[in-house]
């Protein structure tokens, strides 16, 4: 398909070169030369000026686009089809037609550095700097490090299968739409709303976290004012062109990267004696009080295993990455080249940060540290409950805690910003597939799905429940109810990949022909699926221990596990969907447009040296 040659003819415009040739092969056309010729005062926008190469869409009235979409049919030439239906010829070069005009109205404006930092930004919130200390108290430094390292291997396998699918078909909300196309339409519906509810619920949670972090310095600022300001920031960032969202998220997420690198460097220096006390403590706390601790009153090996299991549960709910990277596929420049590199880079960076971060907190603070235990017991605000700040207090370092708190605030802002983006794009992807109201597909001229963003921000208004102490518990319940959703998402990704792989085999398509082929398949995907499936149920096991049973805790742990099959069955019964047979799975939908875009893509030159080097570092 990618090797086809096309004769490009237009209704009233003929392409000529200086030698008066009239028919061109793909490598000989004016398209490949990047120039345009005038005929009867009309301009034909060629390779480096086309909508296909720039990834933006023509400013066609929405009703006209809808009419064109309904009337369009697949034709022998994708370029001709897009030209006939959407008027590419007369489009201004700066705001030309989209890769998927009439279907997907978003713009491909995200560069490699944006994609990678979006993935990092959505995964690293306050958990890596603050909540990780709770795992240290539950299991000890060795349990924490082993658990986080083990779960990184699971995330590697999830990333592996996602990278192969998304690189093959980099569309908006990919894994949600793949689930509907290659497994069952009802499965795609359940997966989509599971992910949307999860991401949307985390937005008010992070807004409230920002308010709590600010209280590290002062509690005089009204909670309502803080929440309102953050909501305005999120609205401003997400309602403008996606490139501005990408730029904002790049800088905020870069702050997270610098913070964790700084904290790892801090750990190395102080453990070797570079602290006001001159204490060269090294791995002292791994020996005294020890590497493992018991939990829930159990002693011996059983108690240590229970402590380790609690660390593994925390790791499974904390470490992510491939879902956030994949959500940006539909708005990435040159995705066939960018996405596999982004998946690999985000995985390696995140696992490095989480593995070394879990090692660092075990070096800095003993698992029986009284200050850290008291901070969690009383719900100390912001970085006050961070094991890094606890170590700074022990070592009598007075300035760094304020710097850490400021960076943690940026981290929470960035995480909430990523959740708004991912929630709105998942809702948009479902609208494109007919699983959300049709008006949700409407985008601004800058390619932003405005109604999807607004819907997500309306859910974020739940953050105002924090203003009332009595209502604040409702918000905490709402967030707790969706804790299992992330593991369900990973199970959906793995299961969808297995169906994708089976469909390739049934239709005689070799994986060697794909633009990107992942390794250790399908065994890596089986491993990830089994681990995520088990941990989804193990996550709430403590409610079954003697003396720990409460109805709210049981509901918090297992509600979404029950909701997912209910969503699946409701859609399946209403729409009478069928499980997709491997030989009938639609592996070609949107593929022509992606390959045409890839053939005609011309990279945008960097604006300056800064842009050039950052794109090189993060590519």
TrEMBL record:
The chain crosses the membrane at residues 115-132, 144-171, 192-217, 223-245, 257-277, 346-367, 402-422, 448-467, 473-500, 526-549, 555-574. Signal peptide: none annotated. Residues 19-59 are annotated as: Disordered. Residues 114-579 form the Amino acid permease/ SLC12A domain. InterPro entries: AA-permease/SLC12A_dom, APC_YAT. The keyword DNA repair does not apply. The keyword Membrane applies. Keywords: Amino-acid transport, Membrane, Transmembrane, Transmembrane helix, Transport. It comes from the Eukaryota. GO terms for molecular function: amino acid transmembrane transporter activity. It is a multi-pass membrane protein. Pfam families: AA_permease. GO terms for cellular component: membrane. It comes from Lithohypha guttulata. This is General amino acid permease agp2. PANTHER family: AMINO ACID PERMEASE (PTHR43341), GENERAL AMINO ACID PERMEASE AGP2 (PTHR43341:SF15). Residues 19-29, 36-48 have a biased composition (Basic and acidic residues). It is found in: Membrane.
């Amino acid at each position: 398909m990618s090797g086809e040659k096309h004769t490009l003819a237009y209704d009233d415009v003929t392409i000529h070169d200086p030698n008066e040739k009239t028919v061109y092969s793909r490598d000989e056309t004016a398209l490949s030369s990047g120039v345009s010729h005038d005929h009867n005062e009309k301009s034909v926008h060629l390779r480096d000026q086309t909508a296909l190469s720039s990834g933006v869409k023509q400013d066609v009235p929405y009703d006209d686009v809808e009419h064109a979409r309904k009337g369009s049919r697949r034709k022998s030439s994708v370029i001709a089809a897009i030209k006939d239906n959407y008027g590419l010829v007369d489009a201004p070069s700066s705001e030309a037609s989209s890769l998927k005009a009439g279907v997907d109205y978003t713009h491909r404006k995200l560069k490699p550095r944006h994609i990678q930092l979006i993935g990092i930004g959505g995964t690293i919130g306050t958990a890596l700097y603050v909540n990780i200390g709770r795992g240290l108290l539950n299991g000890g430094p060795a349990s924490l490090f082993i658990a986080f390292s083990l779960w990184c291997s699971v995330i590697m396998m999830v990333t592996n299968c996602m990278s192969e699918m998304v690189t093959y078909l980099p569309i908006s909300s990919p894994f949600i739409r793949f689930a509907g196309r290659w497994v069952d339409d009802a499965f795609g519906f359940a997966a989509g709303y599971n992910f949307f509810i999860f991401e949307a619920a985390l937005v008010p949670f992070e807004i409230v976290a920002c308010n709590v972090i600010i209280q590290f310095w002062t509690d005089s600022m009204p909670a309502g004012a803080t929440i309102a300001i953050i909501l305005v920031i999120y609205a401003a960032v997400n309602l403008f062109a996606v490139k501005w969202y990408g730029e904002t998220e790049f800088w905020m997420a870069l702050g997270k990267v610098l913070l964790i690198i700084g904290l790892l460097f801090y750990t190395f220096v102080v453990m070797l004696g570079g602290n006001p006390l001159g204490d060269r403590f090294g791995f002292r706390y791994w020996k005294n009080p020890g590497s493992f601790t018991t939990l829930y009153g159990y002693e011996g090996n059983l108690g240590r295993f229970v402590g380790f299991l609690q660390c593994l549960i925390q790791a499974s709910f904390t470490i992510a990455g491939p879902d956030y990277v994949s959500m940006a596929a539909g708005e990435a420049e040159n995705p066939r080249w960018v996405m596999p590199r982004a998946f690999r880079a985000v995985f390696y960076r995140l696992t490095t940060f989480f593995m070394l971060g879990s090692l660092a907190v075990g070096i800095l603070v003993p698992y029986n540290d009284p200050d850290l235990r008291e901070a969690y017991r009383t719900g100390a605000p912001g970085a006050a409950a961070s094991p890094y700040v606890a170590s700074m207090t022990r070592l009598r370092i007075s300035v760094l805690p304020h710097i850490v708190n400021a960076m943690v605030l940026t981290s929470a802002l960035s995480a909430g910003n990523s959740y708004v983006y991912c929630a709105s794009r998942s809702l948009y992807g479902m609208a494109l597939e007919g699983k959300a109201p049709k008006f949700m597909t409407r985008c601004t001229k800058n390619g932003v799905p405005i109604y999807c963003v607004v819907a997500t921000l309306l859910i974020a208004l739940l953050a105002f429940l924090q203003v009332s102490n009595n209502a604040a518990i409702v918000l905490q319940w709402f967030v707790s109810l969706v804790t299992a959703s992330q593991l369900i998402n990973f199970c959906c990704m793995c299961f969808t990949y297995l169906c994708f792989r089976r469909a390739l085999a049934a239709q005689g398509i070799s994986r060697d022909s794909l633009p990107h082929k992942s390794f250790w398949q399908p065994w890596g995907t089986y491993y990830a699926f089994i681990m995520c499936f088990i941990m989804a149920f193990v996550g709430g096991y403590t409610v079954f221990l003697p003396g720990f049973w409460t109805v709210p805790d049981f509901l918090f742990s297992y509600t979404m596990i029950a909701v997912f099959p209910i969503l699946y069955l409701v859609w399946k019964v209403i729409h009478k969907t069928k499980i997709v047979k491997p030989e009938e799975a639609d592996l070609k939908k949107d593929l022509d447009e992606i390959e045409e875009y890839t053939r005609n893509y011309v990279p945008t030159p960097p604006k300056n040296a800064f842009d050039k080097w950052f794109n090189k570092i993060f590519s």
